[in-house]
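Figure caption, in words: inputs first, then the predicted bound structure.
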Amino acid sequence: MIHLKCTSGVVMATLKELIKLVKELPEDSFGDVYKIMNDIKEAAEEAKKTAPVVCIQCGEKAVKNGKNDGIQQYICKKCGKSFSERATSAISNSQASDSVWMSVIRDTVSGVSLARTSKDLEISESTVFNMRHKIINAIEQEYLSNPVTLEGACEVDETYLLECEKGSAFPECYHREPRQNGKALKPGLSDEYICLCTSVTSTGKRIARAVNRATPSKDEIEQVFGKRIEDDTLLLVDGNKSYNTMKDRCIVIKTDEEDRVRINRFHSFIKERNSRARGFATKNLNRYAALFAQVFGNQDDAPIKIFELIKNRNKRFISIDGLRSHNLLLL
Ligand SMILES: [Zn+2]
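Bound structure (zinc ion present):
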């Protein structure tokens, strides 16, 4: 019998670390390991105290109705509707286990490539791609339905990323030629760049949203920040006059570069992720922007919060076809 000891009381291991460990075990210990893991799984299920599950059709209390591929099923005694524990969540219909979802979330938060996650978890890259986009779509939907307000002194600035046609055939009759070596074709801040409007608030919350190419207009600034202003909002800006559009509702102050340390760190984080991924397809940029706003400075807590978000039965399920066309950056 193998005994697992842990002096600190808490072991944090990712699924891929566990898979690696199991692969390296001597074969004659497989039986013991299987029993231990099964005991842990049963104990965890027993301990899981959830609120009564209600029917997704009539709202009456539903009862357990076996499992399908390890996923709990329910049935309503009143209307007879059957549904899974994931029904109406962002991952409704997914056959992947919670552990696999958690691993894909961790890799998404840490900026691990799709190829790497696919290799580690031994699932196809297209499946990992679809899982990742369901995750970041759920984050974007949450970001849009619960917008961060501009509380107190907020550093505000724009950052720019090169437009990217990744994942699609290069369009015919496009406004530019294909790029060589990932470098801009035109000098300076041209329409080859997508502008991300960003803020870090006094409480450390982040905003990031792309609205257009090159320098944002007053209308675009208003679109991203206008509804987030509060009575005590103080905007620390770099001198871009477009922010003056909000002067009638809050205080706008021009500050030096060194007084906007937090927002510069946020920009460095976004640019580092963008360069590691060799660019994010512009059509998906706002999903990634919402991810970066959620995880910057918060990478330890983020995976569990995102996991709760995608399992929440908040009717945010989106099909693969829906993912391809939903909420894309319109330019
Ligand atoms: Zn019912």
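The two ends are 62 Å apart (CA to CA).
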